[in-house]
Every structure is written in C-alpha cells, then in structure tokens.
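Narrative progress, year one. The postdoctoral researcher (J.K.) led the effort to move from monomer predictions toward full complexes, under supervision of the PI. The following entry was the first complex the group processed end to end, covering 609 residues in total.
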Amino acid sequence: MTSRIIHHPVLDKVDETDIVSFKFNDTVLTGLRNESLAAALLANNIRTLRVHEESGTPRGIYCNIGHCFECRVNVNGQQGVRACLTPVEEGMTVSSGEKFLTSVKDWRSNNE
Amino acid sequence: MNRVIVIGAGPAGLSAAITIAENGYEVLILDEYMLAGGRLLGQLYEEENGKWWNGIKESKSLHDKAVALGIEIRLGTPVSNIEKLDGSWVIYTDEETYYTSHLLLATGAAEVPLSIPGWTLPGVMSVGAAQVMTNVHRVKPGNRGVIIGVNVLSSAIAMELKLADIDVAAITLPKMNQVTKESGNPMDVMNSLLHVSHMAPSAFVKFGSKLMKNEFMKKMGITFFPKKGVKMWDIPIMLRKAVINIYGKDAVEGVTIATISASGEVIEGTEETISADFVCIAGGLYPLAELAAIAGCPFYYIEELGGYVPLHNERMETVLDGLYVAGNITGVEGAKVAISQGVAAGLAIANSFSGGKHEVVIQEAIQTIGRTRDEAFIQFHPDVKEGKEKLQRYFEEYGQEVKVGVTG
Amino acid sequence: MSENKMIICRCEEVTYGELKNTAETYNCSARELKLRTRAGMGYCGGRTCRSMVDSIAHASVERDVTQVTLKYQPPIRPVSFGSLGGVTK
C-alpha cells in the first residue's frame, strides 16, 4: 500500500481536509483538491492506469512530468489525457485506455 | 513592440521573465505542467550552511515575484509546434496560437532511461517521477524501492526518499548492454563518482553526515568493492551488482540482481531477488530541445552538456533571429545556473528592445553564470565547463562560416 | 525475461533484440533504425527512448555530432484532428 506523506521533517504539513471525489473505471475514489490525477490514483493504491493498445500489458506513471505519455487516460470523455499533468476535480470521470480489438502490429508483420 | 513569450515556467523561464518585466517589457509564460517551477519543484537538499534548498519554496518565490510584476503565466498549456512566419515567431497550443518577435525556450531536460527487462510494469518509474511524487505531491511512490543507476541525481533523490520515510532497499547498476553502457560498468561508475568527490564542494561530500561520507569515499576508492555494497544514509550502494530483471504480475513485486565483474559482466549463478513495490530508473538527464530543433536551430552533440544542444552564445541567443534559450535546454546543470542563465537571456531580450542599452549588465550577467557554475553544489557532469567552451567555439566557427557564405 | 525481449520503445513495444538485429543487418543510421522498427514513432514522439535507439545505432555507425541524429518533427505533442482543423468539439 502506498500512502500520503502528511508530515515531513523539512517540508510543510499537507492539508488533507480539502477532498474531492472522482470516478476511475466506475469506482468512486477521493483525492485532494489540486493534486494531479496520477497522485490521487497512486494514493488510492492504483498503479495501472491503462493497458498498451496492442499487447494489453499494464502501464502506469513513468516520468510523472508529461514527457512520456504512459499515464494517459480518458477524462470526461476526452482521450489521451496525461494523468500526471491534470489536476483532479470534483466529479471527474476517468477511465483507462483499452486494448485494440485488432493488432496493427500483427497486420504489419503479416503484410510486409 | 510586442509581448515576449517564454516557454517553460522552470527556474530559467521564470527568472528570464522577471528580468524582462523588471526592464519594463511585457511577458507571457507558457508551461504544460500544473504548477510553476519545473524540475526545481522537486529539489530538496541541505546546503553547506545547513540551510535547506527547498524547491517548492524557491519555485513559489519566483512565481510570486513574476505575478507581482504583472507577468501572465498560463499553466496546463502544452506547445505543440513553433515556426517563423513573416518575421514573427508563431507558437501553437491546443487552445490558442500566439505571436511574438522574441521567444525564449526554457524547456529544461528530460530523463534518460535505462532499459531493464520488465521495466514497463506499473511501479517502475523514472527517478525524477519518484522525486515529484514524494516531494511535490507527497504520495509515496511505494513502500520499498530499488534505484537502478548510481549517479549524483539518483543519490540525491535516494536521500529525499529516505527523508520521507520510504525504504530504499538498494541503489545498484543496470545490467550492461548497448543502451546502458557506462551506467552498467562498475569501473566507469566508480570513476565518475570519484571524480565528483574531488570537486569542492562535492555532492557526495555534502550529503549525509561527515563520518559517513569519509567512510563512504574511503570504501569507494578501493578496487574490490564489497559485494553487499557500502551504505550511504543506510542505503546499500551496490556497484558490483546489476539488476537483470524486474518481476511482477501486474505491478512490480521485486527485482532480480546478480553479481557482476569489475567490467560489468554478469557472473552466472549469483542471481538473487530483492522484493520491492517500486523501482526507479536513473539514467541521468538530457537537454529537452525539441522546439529549438523544429524551429531550425543548428545542433551539436556535447557529451559534457548531456547530449545535443542548440547552438547559442553566452548571451543565450541562438543563431535564429529573436530565438533565445536558457536553462537545461543549453546543457544539464543545477537550478541556480538556470536562474542565472534566465537573467542573461532576459537582459539580452531587453537589450534587443532598447537598442543596446543593456550591454554592461549583460556582461555582468554572463560573469554571474560562470561564478554560479563554479560554486554549484551539484554538478551533473564534471567537465561542464569544457562543454560550454566547446559550444562557444562551435558558435564562433558557425559565425565565421556564415560570414564567408555572405561575402563569398 | 531475456534481454532480447526487453522493450526499448515503450510506446510501440519495440524490443532490444529487434533493434540490435536491424542495426546489425542494415548497418544503418539512427534515423533508418527508427523508420525500420518504428522505435520512437509512437505516442511520446521518441522523447523516452531516443537516447537508447541512438546508442544502438551508434554501436556500429559513428555519431554525427553536428546534427540531431533522430530528427524532431512537429507536432511535438499529440494534437487532435479537431484542433488541427480549428474545429472545436
């Protein structure tokens, strides 16, 4: 289980009172207002944010600052949203990307 | 006169914008992250004087200063493209297109990965990701982690994880192959660490207690590095082990390590496992210069600066009219150097508007960059100064070639 | 997992073995290696794997220090067709 670091020997104490609720793959979760979706999900012990479109392998955050796009999820119907750059909001509906029904890679290797 | 645009709200971009605004010109900053500060946000270390360099506070003070000067900062705004059209720089974002005569690229650095079998498993992240999760978002990346890659950055972040009461089971090497190269070679790693120790002030000397560091350096110096590693802040640093696999079903459950020879070859039959729920990959940083590349800047590969850097001079001017660079896009260094480069870039821009009234202060700003570099607490590459000199020579040669081209 | 099956390009799931074999077979530039394997051509635009693809290519071909070996192409962040056409959803 991962957890929040409320008290820190050097940094300020985290205010854990301003809570928002959001939905991830039909489960209602809570997060702290203005934190990133990636942080909110990890605080809920959710590591798998999507599966690879071709192979279906699970993926989670990798770079955490918007460079790698590994944490992309669907937010309120919009695809390809980076969870690490998106502040969690009250009532947000978030879902994981799914595996494609037909693999493009298989097509490529069979048709080249 | 129009509004200057700065891409990147990190230390370089913020300080440049502040400088420009202080000189009476309008600035807009764009950044795709949700907070201002860039990589500075995650930084946390104790300086020589015993004071903490707290990236969040430093970022906030730069941010507040910028806002007080009337600078607009648009966060959550990724730039997808830039181009020069009819003498103006055009900046494309999802929502809007911006135009300016003076554009500063302060896009920082990206992390270099080290590929390990199993590294796509959830729970494997770049070391910078763990830093941001821990120090900025204050969520533990996990309870017990293994850091792959032994360098200045990974050691600094390992200490930050410990500070937040996160167990770091080991800092060790990646298995050597064509992509991990020197990062997987114990002798190369030890040499680079010893190089760091010779510097004053050195990151290794400064971190941790004095007793620990002397003991640590003593142990580092010996040829036969103990298989179990030496401990720094109670974290085993294993230079004679390499991670050969990251395992887990749907997320990280642990890593398999093996003993390696002094030249990095895996010794068969020495495999053992370390259980962990997160793994950090620490391959270092490289200048994130993609916007300079699509704008058409000439580039040079300078290893001491972390990779390909856009050609620019000491005044942070690229060879393209109205395009400036500052911070890690010009070479990987610490935040204080980035701040001083931002000042120089900001003055160069103000100078362009004022018709040359800022020449004296620009020279002072260039001096300050050099001084800041000399006093830097963390140096990512021991020969960064040589790298900068190389770049300067390339710039001069380029200028000569252009002149020859024009007259000939 | 064997090292050859290790993924280099996370977006397109291009493996170390595939890249090494391609580099050895064609003795090619980093750019050609990318075009042949799709490494670095996925969602992130190669920001994550470019240094590794570069390393594999430069194990057999000398690096050109005067130009970026893996060319950057706009857009450097994915843009939806709606935004490209200036159409708002």
